[in-house]
Amino acid sequence: MQVPVVLSPRSLANRARQAKRHGMTLDQYLERLASEGWCNACKAWHPAASFGRDKNRHDGRARTCKAVMHARSRTWLNELKERAAAETDAELLDAVVAMLRLRTPHAQILAAIRESRAKARPHGGGRGPAREAHERPPGQGDFPARQRAPRGVA
Fold first, then answer.
1. Residue of 32 and 106 predicted with greater confidence
2. Which structural domains are found in the chain, ordered by start?
């Protein structure tokens, strides 16, 4: 059983204006708002579960759906990666040109390129942690062995 929501005259007028904008009556609009939400980014109705939480809003739901938020964060991350790659590539190109001017052997140039790319991807490009990040003494695994007393001995 739903508890009826009491709206102030100003809020009711705002909802009536929104209903008119969406091409429906105020009652239809309020019914739809009870189970769905309007995404301001993609301009479409979605189920309430498609919106994240936002405690600062009156209904506790975000204004944009999760799909749009995911797409935005993906776009931002890809742009960030491209900028980082461009900066790294420019620095690498300058270093290679300097080595060529000094007539550095080809093998040393390739080694410098591999080292530079390894520094740019500290975790091996998503294939596990880099060796330098987790140096351990020889013979020691990921976790040191726990010393336990035998059972029955305090």
1. 32
2. 10-67 (3.30.60), 70-122 (no CATH)
